[in-house]
Amino acid sequence: MEIKDEVKSPGKISRTFITLYDVFQFMGRFFKEGFLPPYEGKELMKQCYDIGYRSLALISLTGFITGIVFTKQSRPSLSEFGATSWLPSLVGIALLRTLAPLLTSLIAAGKVGSSIGAELGSMRVTEQIDAMEVSATNPFKFLVTTRVLASTITIPILTFYTAMVGMLGALLNVSLSEGTSAKAFFQSSLESITFLDITASTIKAVIFGFTIGMVGCYQGYNSSKGTEGVGKAANSAVVIGMFLIFIEEVVSVQFFGLFRT
Amino acid sequence: MEERKPLSEHEKVIEINGLYKSFGNYHVLRGVDLELYKRENLVVLGKSGTGKSVLIKIVVGLLTPDRGEVKVLNQHVDQITYKELLALRLKVGFSFQNSALYDSMTVRENLIFPLVRNQRKLTKGEITSAVEEMLDAVGLLHTINQMPSELSGGQRKRIGIARTLILRPEIMLYDEPTAGLDPITCLEINNLINEVQERFHTSSIIITHDLTCAKAVGNRVAMLLDGKFERQGTFEDVFNTSDDRVKPFYDYNFIQ
Q1: Is B83 on the interface with A (CB under 8 A)?
Q2: What is the value of ipTM here, to two decimals?
Q3: On the CB side of B164, how many CA atoms lie within 13 Å of its CA?
Q4: Domains and CATH numbers, chain B
């Protein structure tokens, strides 16, 4: 028979600090394990393919529609000043600087983050992660580092893909309304895009990708309490992932704004 | 059913001294002392929730003890580095209660996974023959291309054991190997545990509350009572008692 003692459980504030400590420890382990051999190249490629493939259809559709809608909504304001010729550059800048990284990351947080959370959560509660441990495989390296790296690599690629598809949507709208040629559209929009825009967008996408992978893995890897825990892990991966992406977006806009003035 | 005899070999492969483990307010293990000798099958009995599984998870380093000493193959599990622990785990097989098969992989891939990750220099032919040999040993070669979801409970247990055995461990830890299985399948699993001991010369700890299994596979039996092993010995030694904590266990299994 078990003896029951009066052990005081930690309060809410203590629990928050314990969780934060846990998260930083998890991140620290990722940086330690991710760069030390043996490398899980095959699994990394598989995860990159999975993440890219899983999000591609939705990202294509969303990017294309965003391009059309954003152009359509911006036209009246610009036409008031007789500046509809600025549409291509406006769309190009808006897509590259904010819309593409944010849209791609939010979609990926929903699709990829939840999937990682549920997959690892289910592996945790069915002892598959423990089974890896006891068969002398480092599950953290195999499951976590590969997924976090894959989303960190894949999200920036998807971001530029979203920007490109969005531009095609904008081109369709502009050419139907103003009869602008594709060459003139791309010339105008690409002229206004600076090296800083591309760099900032890439850095943001890398940070967003890392966040999605890290949150999904943390929630899934540490899930408990059976199937309820799996659902919670998937849900938390999306909610926390999206919340952090918005915070990172606000901070990065402020940060990169310093270089634009 | 014939009771198995204790083995005469005295080389200790696992030594546990003064082991304590709590979860929050619950003190599960309270001063556990236990030895596993080379090539013996030791059955650990006890009611549900008494810490039997916790004990073998500590042995393999999945859980850390609060206090006490755990020596596996002369290495202190809680004092070695993670790398050393991984190397030690190659010598200690763990068969999970729910088999813990990788459900996104076929049976073949489940067996290949630990093999290629730990013996990276094997050729494709060597890997195939190792997988087929191990599946043949558990009598399930025909399931090689099936997914775990297509297998019965007993088949999953056998595949789990095969996946563990493919690394040729010196020690096997079975967590409730017959739980949730029908009597015939239980008998098959018991026979398999004995075959593994004889064919692969393993030393094993078998966690169970199934006394038929305990009698069929155990060279020695240890009963976990109130967080400690208070009764150890042959099946007869353990159950030849009027202890109120032990008697109902026997009565339920063999009289009811």
Answers
A1: no
A2: 0.87
A3: 34
A4: 12-254 (3.40.50.300)
